[in-house]
Amino acid sequence: MTPQEAEQELSYGVLIVGKEEEHFSIINGNYIQEDQEEPLQEKLAKIQSMDKDELKQYDTQQRRLQADDESKGAGLGLIEMARKATHPIEYEISSMENGYSFFVVKAVI
Predict the structure, then answer these.
(1) How are beta strands 23-33 and 13-20 bridged, if at all?
(2) Is 107:89 a contact under the CB 8 Å cutoff?
(3) Per residue in 33-92, pLDDT tens?
(4) CA 7/CA 29 separation, integer angstroms
(5) Whole-number pLDDT of residue 23
(6) Are strands 23-33 and 90-95 parallel, antiparallel or unpaired?
(7) Helix/strand/coil (H, E, C) string of the chain?
């Protein structure tokens, strides 16, 4: 891999771990391209609507599928967060300049 290819693979994000009473919260923020907003919102709405058993089945199903070219794991990290969370995961997507949005997801475990 050339340095230019390695640089293209790098992405910037934020990870915050905090404590809320007897639980820990994990907050992750990343830039995404604006055209990724709608598919991401659809995936998150689906994940939020599932109970623990449905999440386990969905996780197994997604692991068997080939991730699409744009994906870096078919949303497995989001599914895993939802499975481990004690409360439904929360998210927010804010539009930024130059074709990007900032995506934030929070899980309380």
Answers:
(1) antiparallel
(2) yes
(3) 999 999 999 999 999 999 999 999 999 888 888 655 455 555 778 999 999 999 999 999
(4) 20
(5) 93
(6) unpaired
(7) CCHHHHHHHCCCEEEEEEEECCEEEEEEEEEEEHHHHHHHHHHHHHHHCCCHHHHHHHHHHHHHCCCCCCCCCCCHHHHHHHHHCCCCCEEEEEECCCCEEEEEEEEEC
10 Å Cβ neighbour count for 2? 7
The pTM score is: 0.75
Nearest in space to 72 (alpha carbons), one of 1, 9, 7, 8 = 9
What's the CA gap between 27 and 97, in Å, rounded? 22
The crossing angle, in degrees rounded to 10, of helices 76-84 and 52-64 is 160
